[in-house]
UniProtKB/TrEMBL annotation:
Keyword Metal-binding assigned: yes
Gene3D superfamilies according to UniProt: 2,3-Dihydroxybiphenyl 1,2-Dioxygenase, domain 1 (3.10.180.10)
InterPro entries on file: Fosfomycin_Res_Enzymes (IPR051332), Glyas_Bleomycin-R_OHBP_Dase (IPR029068), Glyas_Fos-R_dOase_dom (IPR004360), VOC_core (IPR037523), YwkD-like_dom (IPR037478)
Organism: Niabella yanshanensis
Keywords linked to the UniProt accession: Metal-binding
VOC domain sequence ranges: 5-128
Source organism, top-level taxon: Bacteria
Pfam families (UniProt xref): Glyoxalase
Lineage: Bacteria, Pseudomonadati, Bacteroidota, Chitinophagia, Chitinophagales
Coiled-coil boundaries: none
Name of the protein described by the UniProt record: VOC family protein
């Protein structure tokens, strides 16, 4: 098997409209396709960033909550590259999002921080 690249990340949200607004208006993703699957009572939103398809956002009736954060079995977090961590923190704060204190990666010397989406999914921003 030869993997070429990451295709997408699938996220199940508890409040579709709230998460749709967060990923598009706060994080700046572009809607590629939006469908409602009546047989599943489920929305599916395909999102891209800078022309690259990255996230499938799903809604399902009454999904269970995430058990623990961030060291639960399964996906730990998603991470996005940014050019300036200080500017990113200021932007997030302007959207009433409080990121964790900025840390420095002990191996690369790069700065990073975490914040959460509306369902408390950890999101990392990592300075290039």
């Amino acid at each position: 098997m030869k993997i070429e690249k990451l295709h997408h990340i699938a996220i199940i949200c508890s409040d579709y409209e709230r998460s749709k607004k967060f990923y598009t208006e706060v994080l700046g993703f572009t809607i590629e396709q939006e469908v409602f699957r009546a047989e599943r009572n489920s929305h599916k939103l395909d999102l891209s960033l800078n022309g690259q398809y990255l996230i499938e956002l799903f809604s399902f009736p009454d999904p269970p909550e995430r058990l623990t954060r961030p060291e639960a079995t399964g996906l730990r977090h998603i991470a996005f590259s940014v050019t300036n961590i200080a500017d990113t923190v200021k932007y997030l704060q302007s959207k009433n999002i409080t990121p964790e204190p900025v840390r420095t990666d002990e191996f690369t010397g790069k700065k990073f921080t975490f914040f959460t989406d509306p369902d408390l999914l950890p999101i990392e921003v990592y300075e290039l």
